[in-house]
Amino acid sequence: MEMPSEKSPATVSTSTTQEKPPISDTPATTTSNSDGEATTPSVPLTPEERHLAQMQRWNTPRINLYRFLAANWSFILMGMNDGAVGALIPYIEPYYDISYTVLSLVFLAPFVGYLVAALSNNLIHHHLGQRGVAILGPIFRLIGYIPLACHPPYPALPVVMLFPGFGNGLEDSAWNAWIGNMHSANELLGFLHGAYGLGATIGPLIATAMVTKSNLQWYAFYYVMIALSVVEFALAVPAFWKATGAVHRAQQGLAAGGGEEAGDGEEVHKRTTTRTTLKNPITWLVALFLLGYVGAEVSLGGWIVTFMLKVRHAEAFAAGLTVTFFWLGLTLGRVVLGFVTGRVGEKLAITIYLLLSVALQLLYWLVPSFVASAIFVAFLGFFLGPLFPAAIVAATKLLPSDHHVSAIGFAAAFGGGGAAIFPFAVGAIAQSKGVEVLQPICLAILVFILVMWWILPGGMRRGGLEKARENKERVGHQLVVLWGRMKSRGQKPEAS
């Protein structure tokens, strides 16, 4: 066990912390000092206890409350950005007179922005801290939204959408990593991603109403987004102004258990680079899980309206409402099931949610009724809702503390690329096969991420992820154990 140093919080009373988390209320044995006062012996902290001691709360210190609210506001804008595109597709297509394949580039373009955000997130944190994220996020959104509001020629449209993609990816990765390391992370991430779902609910509703009821053009929606992005800048920058790169570097030094002592009495901590975290297979598993999940989520949200119009023959406003039901279900699922997931255990809870999602996706595909499809879509959103927050929590429990910002930031931003790749694939294939291809593609994605989830270390019981890290279980450990048990059972009749 690492011996405590003078410069890091290395000891704690056994009355508050025992050898392994969770912290117990069992009182420690007391001794007496020379003055006859009762004292409690101190023991060195384990790395897990050190991490628990450093975890922040959403309302302590007080500035965290404002920062949490600013992060939620940014996620509302992310949701409005992603949700409105699908609702506007039926109106962008005739405006530019283009095919589904060409139109689908509006989904693919932001992937480049998300990819750059994934690779630069750790570097921006190291030099600029969360302050840099709070400044760059809304600025890059505005760089994209202002030209969109001017409805440029279509070839410029995908290029312009690179910039909101970078801003969204940067904030997506940063705020997920920050809140994922807090106490009650499941519940807080449920609210954070519920804010995204809220934005994705009201975004299509506003966009559809502006076009169908107010007879405005599709680009009028981005006037609203410009105003809301300015509000975000005014909220986020003051809230995160003191969260500089120096503060982030100091926190990373503590997360790693203290750095080397420099000659001037300060600690020097070597930065955990993105390259280092990418050597851990858990980082890639979580990233692939999120890539598939976000791809399914945005493919459904982006093409529901077109599917309802072309296949279910719904009216324009009613079709627009179905995508609102989907995002509303997703919002409620994130908030409500966020309180369930941690109590059941992440591995088991997400497995159940995914199996239910597969069943609902099949019903949505095979039952040829508009009303039934709208109901299935709403419940599909509900059970898909908690998947993203749970994946972030799983990463924090399986990865070392000093890997969290880099690994979770990369996984969240890389996963956000799913919002570009899969909706583009749906559009490209729909050009020749019809928009009905949405259903089998989404079904295949759901099965894929279910397999990715099972490969992650940790059993199905509550606390399985924590035990997997303690026992240093490898990727796919539970599948190997399950296969061994099935093999041994199959050999028993032969032995008899």
Automatic annotation (TrEMBL):
Kindly list the GO molecular function terms attached to this UniProt entry.
transmembrane transporter activity
Main location per the UniProt record: membrane
Domain of life of the organism encoding this protein: Eukaryota
Compositional bias of type Polar residues: which residue ranges? 8-19, 26-43
- Where, per UniProt, does this protein localize? Endomembrane system
User: Which residue spans traverse the membrane?
Assistant: 65-92, 98-120, 132-154, 220-241, 282-304, 316-336, 348-367, 373-395, 407-431, 437-456
What InterPro entries has UniProt attached to this entry? MFS, MFS_dom, MFS_trans_sf, MFS_Transporter
Q: Where is this region: Disordered?
A: 1-48
Domain Major facilitator superfamily (MFS) profile, by residue range, is 67-460
Q: Which GO terms describe its cellular component?
A: endomembrane system; membrane
* PROSITE patterns linked to this entry: MFS
Q: Which UniProt keywords apply?
A: Membrane, Transmembrane, Transmembrane helix, Transport
Q: Does this UniProt record's set of keywords contain Transferase?
A: no
| Its membrane topology | Multi-pass membrane protein
Q: Which PANTHER family match?
A: BYPASS OF STOP CODON PROTEIN 6
Q: Which family does it belong to?
A: Belongs to the major facilitator superfamily.
What's the protein name? Major facilitator superfamily (MFS) profile domain-containing protein
- The species is Coniochaeta pulveracea
